[in-house]
Amino acid sequence: MAACSAVLLTVLSAACATSGQTETKQADQNAPATLSFWSTGGDDETATFQKAADLYHQKHPNVTVKVQTLSWSDAYAKLLAAATSRNGPDIISGGMTWTIQFGTRGAMVDLRKYGADSLKAQALPAQWESAISPDGSVYGVPLDMSTLALYYRTDLLEKAKVEPPKTWEELTAAIDKLKAAGVKKPYSQDWGNLDWIGYFNYLYQAGGSFYTADCKPSLNTPQAEQALTYWADLYKKHGAPTATVEGSDALDTGTAMVVAGNWIAKGIDVNKPKLKGKWAMSTIPAGPAGPTAFIGGRAIGVTSFSKYVETGADFVKFMYSDEAITAISDEARKRNISYISPRADKIVNGSVFTPEQAQVFEASLKTGKAAPGCPGWDESAPDVTKQLQSVILGKSDARTALAEAAKVMERNAG
C-alpha cells in the first residue's frame, strides 16, 4: 500500500466534489461492451488479474475487460485526474481507503445497490471494515491482501543461540544476544520503516488505535505513547537502521531478523540463492495486548462515470468466485507473485506459498487490523508520519509528537 500525497488529497477535496453532477447515461447492457480496469501495482500483477478478466469474457462473450497497469508512484494522481474530469476507467483498484475517499466525493458507485455487500461473509472482517465507508457505503471491496512477517537467518540465530522472538521483550533480548555473538546487523524493518505503517503494528499491539470506533482521533493515550516509545527505542537504543533496505537484500547482506511484507517470501530463494536453507519466517513479535499486524492490500470498485456500472459491479463480484481466484492464483504462481486472496477461506487453501509460509500469513492476517477508513485519514497520514519520525530522530518526545499528530487528524476529520 502506498502513502497518498497530502497535496493531492487537498486538491481532491477542492476539485473533486461531484455531488449534484448529472448521472452518467448507461449503455445498452445487451450490446458488446469493453470495460477498462486501471490496476495499481506492477505488470505481473496486471497479468494475473487479466486472467480473471479473460475468464469473465468466456462467460460473458459480449463483455471484454482490459486491465491496465498504474504504478504506485503515480496511480493516485491519475485516478484523481479521472475523478475530477469524470472521464476515465470503469473499474479501479488502489489503496484500501482510496475508494472511500473518491466515493464520498461522488466518483464511485455504492456497490450495495448491486449486491456486493454479500461478499462481506467471505472477506476477512478487519480488511472489509477498512474498505467500507463509515456510513456503510461499499465504494470498493478488498481485491487482495498483504501483511507482515518476521524473516530471519536461521544460521545467525543458531550462532547466537537465539529462538525467533515472540514478544517485544524477546525481540530486544534477541537483538542484544545477537550483538554479543558478533552479529553486526541484528534487526531491521522494511515495510513501514519510519512510516505510520511501521508504528501501526506497535500501536495496536499495545492496545491502542488511531481512531475510536466512531472515528474520533485517539492518539492521546498511554497505549499510543507506550507503543511509540518502544518503536522509537528499536532505532535509538537497539540500532535498527533508519535507512530502508529491502527485506531480502537485508537478509542477504547479513541482517539476522527483518520485518517485511509477504511479497518477498516467493522471491528469496530465486533472487538470493545463497540464502536457500538459511532463512525462515514467523509472525512478528506480539505486544502486551496481542499479536496484531498491519493488513494491507488493494480495494476494487466501479466509477460513477462508467457507462457500464451494472456490468462492472458484476465483474467485481466475479473476482470473489472460486474460478476467478484459482485463475489469479495459478498465474501468480507462474510469475512468482505473492498473491493472497481477499477471501479468508483461501489464505491457505490454494495458496501460492508453501504450507508453512501460508500458515504464518494466515496467523498474521487473522489477528491483524487494516488501515482506518475514517474521514481525513489519508490526508493526515503524511503529517502523522512526520510526527512519528520526529521521535525516532530525537527531535521530539512521544507525548508531544502524538498530541501534534492528533491535532492534524482532528483538523482533517472536518
From TrEMBL:
Pfam families: SBP_bac_1
Keyword Signal found: yes
Keywords: Signal
Signal sequence, start to end: 1-17
InterPro entries registered for this protein in UniProt: Bact_solute-bd_prot1, SBP
Entry annotated with the keyword Transit peptide: no
Name of this chain's protein: ABC-type glycerol-3-phosphate transport system substrate-binding protein
Organism, as annotated: Nonomuraea jabiensis
